[in-house]
Amino acid sequence: MPVQTRKALISDLESISRIYNQGISDRIATFESEHKTAKELEPWLSSGFPVVVAVDNGEVVAFAASFPYSSRLCYKGIGEFSVYVLRSRRGEGIGTTVMNSLILESEKAGIWKLLSKVFVENLASRKMLIKIGFREVGTHQSHAKLDGVWRDVVVVEYLITSNLH
Hints:
This protein has a seven-stranded mixed beta sheet with strand order 1-2-3-4-5-7-6. Helices cover 25% and strands 35% of the residues. The radius of gyration is 15 Å and the shape is globular. It has a single domain (4-163), classed as Aminopeptidase (3-Layer(aba) Sandwich), CATH 3.40.630. The longest helix has 15 residues, at 94-108. The protein starts with a strand and ends in a 6-residue tail after the last strand. By secondary structure, it is α+β, with helices and mostly antiparallel strands.
């Protein structure tokens, strides 16, 4: 049976935090530097923005989460997103699967744009996002420091044209 996707549940937060903490440790996907507990991630599920998981044989192996881009009313339909895959399952196309699910759930939620900032050197994520229709908008140089080193990020966006009315 192929990997299935669904909306994230509170009971998924332990798995989500484990996967996210792997990404934090890898230092190639987020400026976060401290591991997060499931409890700290609970607000993700109450933001009103979609969070989806990929499940294989009952195990959460990836997630994609979206968050409000800004508190300004004019940006209410823009979601900033993150996508993470269990380290042992990377390279299997699961990131593509969970991102496609996030796009569908975002469309249902009325979101008209998904965007993110991806480390320039995170070529696997950049290639995956381009493959499913994201556009690289440009590079923010020296966007923030991670472990005392300034890092550049590429801004990516995906327009959900059915919600552009």
